[in-house]
Design a protein that fits this description.
Layout: H1 3-11, E1 16-21, E2 25-30, E3 33-39, E4 45-48, H2 54-58, E5 63-65, E6 74-77, H3 85-101, H4 105-110
Antiparallel strand pairs: 1-2, 2-3, 3-4, 4-6, 5-6
Keywords: DNA-binding
Pfam families: YjbR
GO molecular function, one term: DNA binding
Length: 116
Amino acid sequence: MTADEFRACCAALPGATMDIKWEHNEVYSVGDKMFAMLGLISGNVGFKVDPARFLELTDLPGVRPAPYLARYHWISLAHPGVLPVADLAALVGESYALVRARLPAGVRKALPPHAA
């Protein structure tokens, strides 16, 4: 997956927004909560994963615990091409779903529908 494909994957999710944080990271959020990011300088991508898969995924080459966010089960990929396109797209979708599920009910109801 290229960086542009990663951007498109994140932006296609219902209610997803993008802004720049920490001067050089594109951060994708739902309901003001981050679910994915792309380093504009480093090319790294990061996103939240299911706690049950955290250790499994961080054992893969090119995948590591995300700095500062690993305690929340975020991983970092050296670049979007580390994982196959379908796997990365599925993981980004899961990250979105994990974050969306933890939003307050009122915020979730205000978002466009999402078929999980």
